[in-house]
Specification:
It comes from Embleya scabrispora. The chain is 40% helix and 19% strand. It has 242 residues and is an alpha+beta fold. It is globular and about 60 Å long.
Amino acid sequence: MRSVREELRPEDDGIPTDHAMATSPVAFVAAPKDESVLAEVRKYQTCMITETQEREEYRDFLEKALRPLGIYREKFLPGVASSCYKVTFDGRMAAIFRLTPAAPDSIYHEVIPGAAGRRIIEVNNVAIEHSFKGDLLLGIIMRNCALLSHAKGFDYVAGLIRHEILPMFVDFGTIPVRHAPLHLLGDEAICDYVTYFMTDRKEHVDYAVSRSYHYFHRKVTMKQIAADVAESTLCPTDALRG
């Protein structure tokens, strides 16, 4: 059987093409293929940030997202070892994230079971434009983080998440770690927790791919159902006409 790397045929930056995701049988293990779902996913494009102007836009986007929360710090800005990415919708920047190799003595190596001595890449700077919150973006980011981690040869992709929003990541399928609360994001009143994906084996990345499509299918279908219900309440039924 071909590996997920071969199955998805990633582009040079490690992000699979829309066509590859739409034709990979791995994607449809947990939910049936639906063109309306795939059409929604195709509206979002992920690419690596390489130009100076794009980096400035990235920094501005990050500051705008974090400063209202009171957790913006200069140390959160990407360093030379980081790879930065943006997700666009109709040409407009809708979200950002970055990946950085974790140091061998990182908190991730300490608390993730079996991670000592393994290669871990950290995802942070996950920021989503307010009007897109609750949309498909978090799933798109998490899927691509897992695929990029695997393509780059890392065993885990992990992040440090505020307790209040941890359920959003776990709902997608990341693995939470129970450990003493951390306070590393700039506020002693905020409890931070580690969550991660295993990405060293084909089966692990297959899970992330199938889980992501299931997430997209659920989000799109529930939105369609909500629209149907809203429309039905505006249109009287035959029974009501009688």
